[in-house]
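Repro case for the chain-ordering regression, as requested:
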Amino acid sequence: MSLSLSYSEFNQQLLLKLTLGQQFKQTIKVPSELQVYVPQQIDSSQDLLVLNQYWVLMQQAGYQAEGIPETLQKNIAEIDQIENEKQLDNQLVQILKWVVAQESPFLYQDWVIQIFKLAQLQQQVIPRYLVLKVLPLCRNPVLLASVLPEFAFQGDVTTRLDDAKRVWKYVKQQDAAPLIRQLQKSKSSEWSLLMSQLCGQLPNFIHQHIAEFWSQSIQRNHLQSHAESLVTYNMPVTQFEALYQHVKTLEPQNAATVSSNAALAFYLYYQDNALYNEVMALLRVCLNYDVQAKKVKYDINLDQDDALNDYGFFDREANLVESRKSLKTAYQSAQVEQAYQAFCSSSQGVLYLKRILIQLPLAYWLELFGAWEHLFLLHSQQKDSLWNAFIVCCYREQRHDLALWFYQHQVKWCEAVTVSSGNMFERELVFTLLDQEPATGLLLKQLESHYQNQDVEHFWLLFQRAKALHDVQNISEMAVVLLQHAYVNLDLQQDQKKFALLKEQAQWLILQAYPIDISSLQALFSISEWKQLLQFNHYKQKLIA
Amino acid sequence: MDAGIEALQTWLNDVVTMGLGRLRQQQHEKFRDIQSRLVDAQVAGLVSYLDEFSSALYQSNWQMQSSFWIAKLQTAVHLWQNRQQLKPELYEEVKQLFGVNLPTDVWDNISAQMLHVYALGQVTQELVNTRGRYRRQWLWDSQNLRDYLLLDFEIPPYSNFGLTLPFQKQLALNAKLYPVVSQQRLRLEDNLMSFNDLSLTLVAPKGFENFDQAFTQYANGLKQYPLQLVRFFWLEQLRLVKQDKVIYLVDQDQKMCEIEIKQFVELWFLVGTEPFSAGVEWNGLQLKLVSIWQGGHFECL
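-- result from build under test --
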């Protein structure tokens, strides 16, 4: 608090005089304290400069802090209440502090996520001062909502936390409204990302609130195709029946309403709706399995194509749009029959067929093929695509038994490290279904055999996907041996890429798998990275002990 | 140098006759002229005061700030004109401010001393008229509650900043004080210290318990050296408060001071509602937060 308050009249006069110069004609009343240094009557500019000089010195020397207003005092007292939160263990805090101090902390996002998961598991929260720094390193609002301290969500000081705050409100205060509003507002890509995170991590939210916003937000934002792929890859029908119960209430009187509900697969899986029989009747006319040719034959004219489109079988994905165009061109050709056959055996034709089959329930598949074994005999033209579709259908209906049966017979195909045709992501869905006995036992044997054969590539592919085996100690031990071996055989001058890959695998092992003695991996990391990883490994070991 | 100081006195008289209001409209050429005259007269050190003055003219409380810098300049003129009566250390300090370098052999006659201090803050700023930056490293003597300053410059490609002292640890530094009255600025000696001695246990430094202790120390410093500008204080048990868009630090006596801070949100997340210790710079006009220490966490802002 400056003295200028106690001498405010003088201070104001002086500032005005300085501002206006000669134009200011009033006589300045000099306080008695300053009269020791300057004449009583300020006449010249020199007098004015000296007056100002001493006045500023006096203000500096007499500066004091001001008393705090009562209202603020009350505020401080209120905030004083201590929150009861479990703080993140110090070892992990140290690692986070190290990460955020790095020049490119983004390189260590996986570390941060893994630390957050450990925190979530133990219901611990990270220190307040790390909140803003780790925020850009984690895009998962559900995870953030559980590991950020309550402090972060109390004030309204920053918008950077909004996503996590909406989730937090739902989880901690059972207030779903902000989250639903946000989902209704989001653009397509954000909507997809957030929804798939919610499906995986907060299935209860989907159960409770899907009805409130599903049809609304889909119609408003033209999200149908996103919603379809969400259903395909993230919402197994058996686990999200609430969605079906909701879309059923929308009474699909005609094809158009089905497609705008973006839940065709649900309508076809459950048979208690008016359209099921219509769609099935259409398909029975169009599709059949030819045992001799080992192919699914489809005989679809343009009217039928149109009808399927109305039901929502085809999304707006560019390749598929091309396929349908080719079908139309074939029908316009002079030799229709030939052109149609050419279409059927082209990759565009196969994609078209796959797109139809992928929506259909497995009960229909069995009806189409007659016996599951026929799947294995499929002609190479159709094999990859239809197998992918089959796996997606298994995932949607959560058919662990069929997945196991398929994996047993087609191990090589499932474990292909590179895929020349078809969608890697779809193929890998099979592993999510191999998470219970006897499937896990089978995977374990398979891993051991890769280990015996020193087949690093397949060992890693399988290990990383077989989530159920991540906490098996002797698999971790095998992995370390394989990595060590690969490192010894590495020509560091030549194989920079391979080194990077090994490092990545070693890091994954330390972060995600059962913690064992990792000292033989040290050479892959820098000294400071290694210090942090050792700390992390040690922490995990203690947690298990 | 006399010619330069005389020109400055005339210029200041001119400014107050004309009034700051008009100066704001035609400031550029007005400043350029006097600055080059000061450089010619080898009083280049005061150019930075004029820079501060000219930028003060466009701050929100510009009248206050401008009168502050006019007073600083007038004091400089006043001290020079009365240099015969000054104590030798004060005269030396004024000369250094004006830009006269110490002869190198002076250092041989100054004895080094061992200082037990914490490095508690660092402020880096651009130099105004040259490409380059300068840096203030603030050291705090926790026992005597006083600050020391390490000032260095980086002018690429000729020079880089010197040693950066590790924060948060108590250091035993071998250093010489500049032979001037303020006894604030240090020169590090070569055999600095052995970094191996750094103990791992962190003991928070002691500081002032309230603002008024700090302001009293500042006032005493002014008595020694009326041109004293920036001092560093370490204060304990502060809280952060925001009211009507103004940000304050509140001390244990429930007294508060406005602070200058650019990123409130960051600071809010750093300290929350709990008390913390802080390093602040005070120049007699504005309080600037430099570093904070809370629990085991230290951060230089």
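Ordering looks correct now. Chain B touches chain A through 55 residues (CB under 8 Å).
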